Amino acid sequence: MSLFVPKFDDTVLVRDAEAEVVGRAPTTVRLLADSSASGGALSTVRVTLAEGADGARPHVHHNSAEMFFLLDGEAELLSGDDIVTAQSGDLVIVPPDRPHAFAAAPGSTADILIVIAPGVERFEYFRHLQRIRLGEVTPESLLEVQELYDNHFLRSEAWDGRRR
Questions:
Q1: Global pTM exceeds 0.90
Q2: Distance of alpha carbon 164 from alpha carbon 148, whole angstroms
Q3: What is the C-alpha R_g of the chain?
Q4: Which residues, including other chains, have CB under 8 Å from residue 35's CB and lie 6 or more apart?
Q5: What is the 3-state secondary structure (H, E, C) of 86-142?
Q6: CA 62 to mean position of chain CA atoms
Q7: Are 72 and 111 in contact (CB under 8 A)?
Q8: Omega of the bond prior to 26 within 30 degrees of 0, cis?
C-alpha cells in the first residue's frame, strides 16, 4: 500500500455563489474544487438531477475511487452489476476499476456531492460535456479524452435493464 500525501498550503474555500455552474436542468453540475486546488488529493463537484434524470452512464476510473453523498433526494447507483438506491444522507464509495453510473431515482430528484480521490483535473471534462449538449462537439469526441480524465465508458446490462 502506498501513501499519497497531497501538496498544497492554503485552505480551499469555494463559496456557493462563486462556483462555476455547467449545464442546466435536468442535469446541473457545480464545479467545486479540481485536483490542482487540493494538491492532487481530490476533485469534487455537486450534481443536481431533475426527477428521474440520468447523471452519468456506466464507466470506470482506473486510478481513483469515487464517493457519492446524497445531499437530498434519492438516486440509483450502479456499482459493478448491482444497483444501489441511495437516499438523503447516504454515502456510497465505488473503488477504482469498478463499473458505476448514477441517476435520480424514478419519481425523485437527486442532489449529490461527488468526490474523486486521488483527484484528477476534471473541470474541463464537465465543460466538454456541456459542449456536447450545445452541439459544439460530437458525443464521440469523449472517446478521445477517456485517458486524460481517467473516465472509461462501458456497457452494463444491469444498468440498461434497470427501468424496463
A1: yes
A2: 34
A3: 15
A4: 41, 42, 43, 118, 119, 120, 121, 122
A5: EECCCEEEECCCCCEEEEECCCCCEEEEEEEECCCCCHHHHHHHHHHHCCCCCHHHH
A6: 14
A7: yes
A8: yes
Residue located via cell numbers 480521490: 117
CA distance 12 to 7: 12
Instruction: Enter the C-alpha cell of residue 8.
Output: 498544497
**Dihedral (C-alpha) 72, 40, 30, 141: value to the nearest 10 degrees?**
-120
User: Which cell numbers in the block locate residue 153?
Assistant: 465508458
Whole-number Å distance between alpha carbons of 51 and 54 = 9
- Cβ-contact 127, 45 below 8 angstroms: no
DSSP state for residue 148 in the 8-state scheme: H
Q: What is the pLDDT of residues 31-77, one digit of tens each?
A: 999 999 999 999 999 999 999 999 999 999 999 999 999 999 999 99
Q: Measured at the alpha carbon of residue 142, what is the angle toward residues 92 and 59, in degrees to the nearest 5?
A: 25
Other C-beta atoms closer than 10 Å to the C-beta of 142 total 17
